[in-house]
Amino acid sequence: KETQEYILAGAGELHIEVLLSSLLQNSGIDVEVSKPVIAYRETVQYASRDVALAKSENKHNRLWIRASPLNGIIVDAMCGELANTRLKVLAETLVKDHGWSKNEAGRIWATGPEPLDCNDKSNNSNQPTCLLVDSTYGVQIPQDARENIIEAFKQVVRKGVIVNAPMRGVRFDLMDIKLHSDSVHRRPSSVVPAAMRAMRGAFLMAAPSLMEPMYHVDIRGKSSTLEGVYSILGKRGGTVMDTSSSLSMDVIVASMPVRCAFGLAGDLRGATHGHANCSCVFNGMKRIPEEEEG
162 and 210 in contact (C-beta within 8 Å)? Predict the structure, then answer.
């Protein structure tokens, strides 16, 4: 509503072109189209050595937060069989299959970020993969403070810290907290911003990095017509995963960042004189190498 823009999402470049073509033909109106936007994710590489401390503006409330990466197997499970499950089911699975203690799993407060489209529960890449865990000991945390910290968590993992992208596979532990005894001095306007600052600080101390979506690329063409494909894949950051050939057809299977795949079909047709056809399927997220993050 703020930008007066509509977002058109698709499974790939060709899918978007078909959708735009249908839109223009059926509506008969001119449409301004921006360049495609890549859905990056923010993550961390290791647990922060120090605990991030933040104080509320009134100086009456303090929070200590630590950030760490979630095990990749757990992240995959949260995108797969644990997608859209309740916290109780998630906790039971973590204890049963992933070595968590009952005490630790039972202290999970929230998961995030929630999908922007609440009706889209089937997109596994858009499932919550971050956790907020209460790791305090001997501290009684009022319900209002707990709700405010959860709200801060949801905002931080949704908006991110580096490039305003949602977070993926990050665990935030509330290590300690000191709150004013009077609820008047721990209102949302005091606790939420302080908790957000603590989480952002913890994230920055845990070696933050970016993750990008990857394509599984399947290239097929007549036998002995795909010689020029390898150079194109190399220039676009692609990695050849498998090859096969027969009397009638050659097949090349590769992995490629989505950001490098725009215009791939046209380049392949040009290099193979129209003999190559390719299909691209989403194949998970991968951390961007440090030398390419800039």
Answer: yes
Three-class SS of residue 116?
coil
pLDDT > 80? residue 67: yes
Q: How many CA atoms lie within 13 A of 41 on its CB side?
A: 25
User: For 196-238, how does the pLDDT look when each residue is reduced to its tens digit (9 = 90+)?
Assistant: 999 999 999 999 999 999 999 999 998 888 888 999 999 999 9
Give the whole-angstrom CA distance, residue 41 versus residue 94. Answer: 23
Closest CA relative to residue 111, chosen from 174, 168, 52, 190: 168
Structure tokens at 279: 């299909």
Q: What angle do CA 61, 134, 191 make, to 5 degrees?
A: 25
Please give the Cα distance from 177 to 65 (Å, whole number).
9
Question: Measured between alpha carbons, how far is 172 from 135 in angstroms, rounded to an integer?
Answer: 9
Task: Name the token pair of 218.
Answer: 């399947």
Coil/strand/helix, residue 104: helix
The pLDDT value recorded for residue 292 is 75
pLDDT at residue 128, as a whole number: 93
Per-residue pLDDT tens digits for 138-163 = 999 999 999 999 999 999 999 999 99
The position carrying tokens 């303090």 is 62
